[in-house]
Amino acid sequence: MQVLGLCRFSYPAIGGFQTMHASVEERRQFLYRHDRLEERFRLFETIALPGLRQQTDQDFHLRIVIGECLPKPAFDRLNDLTADLKQVEIVVRPPGRHRKVMQEVLNAARQNLDAPCLQFRHDDDDAVAVDFVERLRGTAVDCAALLQSRTMVAIDFNCGYLARANAQGIQAIRVHRPLMTAGLGMFVQGGNRKSIMNFAHNRMNRAMPVVTRPDGPMWVRGLNRFNDSPRTRSTNADLSPLSPQQKAEFLSRFAIDQTYVRQVHAAP
After folding, report:
1. Is this model's pTM higher than 0.85 or not?
2. Using one digit for the tens of pLDDT, what is the confidence trace for 140-151?
3. I need a labelling partner for 256 at 20 to 30 A (CA). Which of 85, 89, 100, 172 fits?
């Protein structure tokens, strides 16, 4: 079964943001601010990409959606960072209605619209565990009878970390949170044109059954200055520096190296 992911990298969509802007041009100016883009690139490089590179099941596809107006230096940097990932394709789109554009991108990437597939969304400041694709596919096998009788089923790995990464390293707390963006997948039946991007992640249980897998940390949710969610930006989560055991877990589960995180974030 095809496993297909989507990541929006500073795409200036119409809608799709909790932070409101009066126009597409105002949104562009916000998204492409130097300090914002610099933070996104550093998090993308040190948090999001390592686990994708080290997936135990390499048979997946990831579409990274950008705006046609993304500054060329940023496009070149994104292209360089993902050049070694054969699963990645950068998709360029003009500004458009968020859900419609994302649905079109995902459906265009499906190898066979009449065959079922598994989908996931991936924010550029989050991480998934190195066995995420393997376990997503394995859960579909475990739940074959349910999936056969449904047009859509969400698969929710609800254990992970809230974390902040900067030049001081990583501060984090392990949590169980249902229907977070990171670590959330969706089965889509053959013939169904809807996608995981047609639904607010935290309300998917209103539209379809949810299979919950609570065992073991499967994601890292990044907390940073430019989180789109005001609630996330202002979270009072009790983060702590990683213990030696957690440093080892971040490396083994997410391929995240705290020394490298410090190095990248401390660079001028």
Report:
1. yes
2. 999 999 999 999
3. 89
